[in-house]
Write a structure and sequence with these properties.
11 strands, alpha/beta, 47% helix, two-stranded antiparallel ribbon
């Protein structure tokens, strides 16, 4: 893809404030689906962003500027470490909803539902679309359906953070299921995308924010405000990452190669999960370690105590974060 871009002898002019138009069209189709009713009905505002972090910051700015004063953001406990900082930097307040069950190393679904059911009307709920970071614990499709029903009843607004589409299961279509389901349910909602993991474009800072609106008449107004926010923050986005992504997504040959590589990378992580669980059982490691394979994505929330994590790192040079998260992609067989 980069060789094709080089051969095209493209210029270094500014992109529009909201980014590369072809990239914006393709990125919306990737996450929402080409046949998405929201796309077909022209109800989606799209703005290229500085990866997922930039998409989240643009969204937070939009909420801070145009939602009723006092609007609260609900985030999962735990969540990605930067969520709190991004929300706070926009002048917004966040509270946590229950998510991780330390007793089962799984989802505290009853607690999550109970917290959503008492959230004030108009609360924005930050959801991890797939491969929850840091736990690797995702709701099932049946649980997503219940979550959507509660949010619709309580008039809560979904805000999806999608950093691992295609990298979780190897199938971008399957990994986008939760987002597409919520669109089908008629929600107005935010979606933030990153291409750092699934394209390996960490230092190109390429991502996007989509705002799914009720009507096409709302889209130009939202687009105008996103452009104003982007202009104030960074003027306009860089081009190279957008050119890489749109080249791959628009070329059948490169697209197929990308999908194969995604399956290879995600498949390796899944295989490392299986091998790690087998090794723990073979060595009669006490406890239930089935969460190693029931979780998904790059990380495993190990369930180890802080003292056990310190011992693993200090005595055995097996490193993980202080929140007990192990990176599965670093494991070798």
């Amino acid at each position: 893809a980069e060789q094709r871009i080089l051969d095209a002898n493209l210029n270094k002019e500014y992109l529009p404030i909201d980014g590369d138009a072809d990239f914006n069209r393709l990125t919306a189709e990737l996450i929402l689906g080409k046949e998405s009713p929201a796309i077909k009905e022209n109800r989606v505002s799209v703005c290229q962003s500085l990866s997922g972090t930039g998409a989240l910051r643009l969204t937070a700015g939009l909420i801070a500027g145009f939602f009723p004063k006092g609007t609260t953001i609900l985030i999962s406990n735990p969540t990605w470490g930067n969520h709190k900082g991004i929300i706070g930097a926009a002048g917004l307040t966040w509270h946590e909803y229950r998510y991780y069950d330390a007793g089962t190393n799984g989802l505290d679904f009853a607690g999550m539902k109970a917290d959503l059911q008492v959230a004030p009307i108009g609360t924005v709920v930050l959801l991890h679309a797939v491969a929850h970071n840091p736990t690797g614990v995702d709701p099932t499709r049946e649980q997503w359906t219940e979550i959507a029903n509660i949010m619709k009843e309580r008039q809560l607004i979904p805000w999806f953070d999608c950093a691992y589409q295609g990298y979780a299961s190897g199938d971008p279509e399957a990994d986008a299921w939760s987002v597409r389901f919520f669109v089908e349910q008629g929600f107005e909602m935010f979606v933030c995308q990153s291409y750092s993991k699934n394209f390996g474009l960490y230092n190109e800072r390429i991502g996007a924010v989509e705002v799914v609106c009720k009507s096409p008449e709302t889209v130009p107004r939202v687009q105008s405000q996103l452009k104003t926010l982007a202009r104030q923050m960074y003027s306009n986005p860089p081009s190279h990452g957008a050119r890489i992504v749109k080249t791959v997504l628009s070329c059948p040959e490169l697209h197929a190669e990308w999908l194969a590589e995604l399956r290879g990378m995600s498949g390796r992580i899944i295989r490392m999960r299986d091998e790690l669980l087998a090794a723990l059982k073979e060595n009669d490691c006490p406890g239930d370690w089935s969460h190693i394979t029931s979780q998904i994505g790059m990380f495993s929330y190990t369930g180890l105590s802080r003292e056990q994590c310190d011992a693993m790192m200090n005595d055995h040079h097996i490193y993980m974060t202080k929140v007990r998260t192990l990176s599965l992609r670093k494991i070798v067989s």
